[in-house]
Each structure stands twice: as structure tokens, then as C-alpha cells.
Write a structure and sequence with these properties.
The protein has 327 residues and is an alpha/beta fold. It is built from eleven helices and 13 strands. A hairpin with a 3-residue loop joins strand 12 and strand 13. Helix 3 packs across helix 4 and helix 8 runs parallel beside helix 9. Bound molecules: oxa(dethia)-CoA. Oxa(dethia)-CoA binds next to helix 2, helix 6, helix 8 and strand 12.
Length: 327
């Protein structure tokens, strides 16, 4: 059976670290509140001259190196991001140019924090139908440029970085076993960026003075939906493959909030030893969170051949989804 499987992973993060103690000097907050409510201790922040493409290119090159794939063989590049270098052209075009993947069709995908799982789902469909052979799926963000650093409700949560995976066609019964993607547009205003689009084009009085070019979030609403949606997406994967939580070797959820991860894992009956968490180091990096975690789990030997790996995402839109793989 023709399937898609991940043959290489990579990630790239800014060197600059912003700790909770640093944030205490910027807004009315404290390390105890941030750690107990979110689990986040520090995040990486891009400096001048670093963009979303900077980290995406580095992560893609590391994934290519691990996979051994020749860049000329890449025929599809999908970038999940809400912080592209520019509204257009797609940042995927910039990445294509920088890594020299001249034979690829490329595009950006807007599914907020679910961008990587959405991208993996599309790559899986292209590859398992024989329409592509080697894809790069990337999640990359520089959220620090759309975060309101005077809003303590949101600025403590987010970080920058990128993760990537090379996804290849192969004949076998492992690799990507299923992907499920969902959306619920009724909640689009719960987490969004009001400015910079066709509704609120740039103007000094409107978008700038009213701070519309910073992301807005109803944290409590997002929290409740995140737990339910990630459980639904994970259950869809388990049901479709006729497996129970006991069969899962490693669960890699979107890294938004430790309490969301714990509540989702508990509902699914997954013990802490099966759950990958790195958000204490990076905060919520949106579309980059799952591929960064996947790369760390891969390079640290947390995933062995034959292991069943479950990825689950949730983000603005709302969008959510899951991917189940035999490693
Ligand atoms: O990637 C997907 C999208 N994002 C998410 O999944 C995030 C989902 N939401 C969350 O993670 C949580 O809702 C937050 C971490 C954002 C907030 O946690 P919470 O437990 O829901 O807190 P809250 O918003 O109910 O605020 C509780 C209190 C409030 O004070 P009062 O009204 O009780 O006096 C806030 O003003 O905590 C206050 N507060 C803070 N205090 C210190 C809010 N932010 C801070 C802060 N430091 N940074």
C-alpha cells in the first residue's frame, strides 16, 4: 500500500531567551502566576534581522539532512504560519528559493496552531494518492511581532521558532496511518489578528492607535474548547485505526498550556510518561509547536521504530486535528 512517512525532522529557534523574570519587568505579572497557570518558564524571541523564513529555512535544512533526501526531489512545500514574512508572496516561496527546492509546488497554509497537522494531512493525501513523492511540511512563527507586549493576558504565552518534517512516499503498512482535520468558524473572533487584512487596512488612527495589529484572545473560551477539541481529534484517530490509548507510545499535543495538555491527556487516559511536553522552554509557538516537539522527541530517542505516535493540534479559527503514525 502506498503511504506517506516522515523520514527526517528538524527545528530551529532564536538564541534570545525571554524568562518569566524578564516579563515581570515588562508587565504586572510574576513567575509564580505564569508557571502555575501555564507551565511556561521561558520562550525564545527573534531579534532584528530574524524572520519566520529564517527559522523555517534552518529547520527545513536540518530535516532534509536527517532524511538524506536531495533537495531537487522535493516536489511540495507546505508552510503552516500566521506570521508570514509578508502577506504575499507566500513565505513558502521564500523558503523554496533559499533552500533551492526548484522542483516544488509551494504554499502557505493558514490554520493557526493547527497549521502543521493540517499541512501533514494535505501532504499525506498528495503522497498516498501518488500526486507527490517528497514533501516538506513546516510550521514556523515569529509571534513576538504580533504580540501586544503591554497585554499581560497574552504576552506571557507566546514564543518564536520553527519545526519541519520531510514526508516521503513508501510502500508499507507504517508511516502516517490517519489524519483528521476539523474547523469551527463560529469562534473566529475568539482568537484573531484584527488588523493588516482587508477589513482593517493600515491607518494611523484605526489600526495603529487602536492596536489592531496585535493578536486578541479570549483565553478562558479558548481553553475550554481546546481540551474538548483535542480529545475529539485524538478519539477520531483512535477509532479510525481501531486502537486504544494503551497502544499509544507517545502523545505529542500542541504546546499551549500545561493545564490544557494535562486535562486532555487525562480525558484520553494517557499517563504522564507517554506525553511529550517542552512548553516550559518555548511557550506557545503556534504552528511550530508540534514539529519542534516532534524533532526534540526524535533526536532525543523518545521514538523507536514501530512506536505509535499521536499528534493533536488546536488553534484559532477554531481549527483542530490529529495525525496517527507508526514510526
Ligand atoms: O494555541 C491555542 C491558543 N491559545 C491557548 O490555548 C490559550 C488558552 N488559554 C489559556 O491558556 C488561559 O486561559 C490563560 C493562561 C490565557 C489564562 O489563564 P486563566 O486561568 O484562564 O486566567 P484568567 O484569564 O481567568 O485570569 C485570572 C486572573 C485575572 O484576574 P482577576 O480578574 O481574577 O482579578 C487576570 O487578570 O489572573 C489575571 N491575570 C494575570 N495575573 C498575573 C491574567 N494574566 C495575568 C498575568 N499575570 N500574566
Amino acid at each position: 500500500m502506498l503511504r506517506a512517512r516522515i523520514t527526517g525532522t528538524g527545528s530551529a529557534l532564536p538564541d534570545k531567551i525571554l524568562t518569566n523574570a524578564d516579563l515581570e519587568r515588562m508587565v504586572e505579572t510574576n513567575d509564580e502566576w505564569i508557571t502555575s497557570r501555564t507551565g511556561i518558564r521561558q520562550r525564545r524571541i527573534a531579534v532584528e534581522g530574524e524572520y519566520t523564513s529564517t527559522f523555517a529555512v534552518a529547520a527545513a535544512q536540518r530535516a532534509l539532512e536527517m532524511s538524506g533526501a536531495n533537495v531537487d526531489e522535493i516536489d511540495l512545500i507546505i508552510l503552516g504560519t500566521v506570521t508570514p514574512d509578508f502577506p504575499f508572496p507566500s513565505t513558502a516561496c521564500i523558503i523554496q528559493h533559499e533552500i533551492g527546492a526548484h522542483n516544488a509546488a509551494v504554499f502557505d497554509l493558514s490554520a493557526a496552531c493547527s497549521g502543521f497537522v493540517y499541512g501533514l494531512s494535505i501532504a499525506d493525501r498528495f503522497i498516498s494518492s501518488g500526486k507527490a513523492k517528497k514533501a516538506l511540511v513546516i510550521g514556523a512563527e515569529v509571534l513576538s511581532r504580533i504580540v501586544d507586549w503591554s497585554d499581560r493576558n497574552t504576552c506571557i504565552l507566546f514564543g518564536d521558532g520553527a519545526g519541519a518534517a520531510v514526508v516521503e512516499a513508501y510502500e508499507g503498512d507504517g508511516g502516517i496511518l490517519s489524519t483528521h482535520i476539523f474547523s469551527n468558524g463560529s469562534f473566529w473572533e475568539t482568537l484573531y489578528l484584527p488588523g493588516c487584512g482587508s477589513r482593517n487596512p493600515a491607518s494611523q488612527q484605526h489600526t495603529i492607535d487602536e492596536r489592531l495589529f496585535f493578536l486578541k484572545m479570549e483565553g478562558n473560551d479558548v481553553f475550554k474548547h481546546a481540551v474538548r477539541a483535542m480529545e475529539e481529534a485524538a478519539s477520531a484517530a483512535l477509532t479510525a485505526n481501531g486502537i486504544s490509548p494503551d497502544n499509544i507510545s507517545l502523545f505529542i499535543p500542541h504546546q499551549a498550556n500545561r493545564r490544557i495538555i494535562d486535562a486532555t491527556s487525562k480525558r484520553l487516559g494517557l499517563g504522564e510518561d507517554k506525553v511529550f511536553v517542552n512548553l516550559h522552554n518555548y511557550g506557545n509557538t503556534s504552528a511550530a509547536s508540534i514539529p519542534i516537539a516532534l524533532d526534540e522527541a526524535n533526536r532525543s530517542g523518545r521514538m523507536k521504530a514501530g512506536d505509535i505516535i499521536l499528534l493533536t493540534a488546536f488553534g484559532g479559527g477554531f481549527t483542530y486535528g490529529s495525525a496517527l503514525m507508526r514510526w
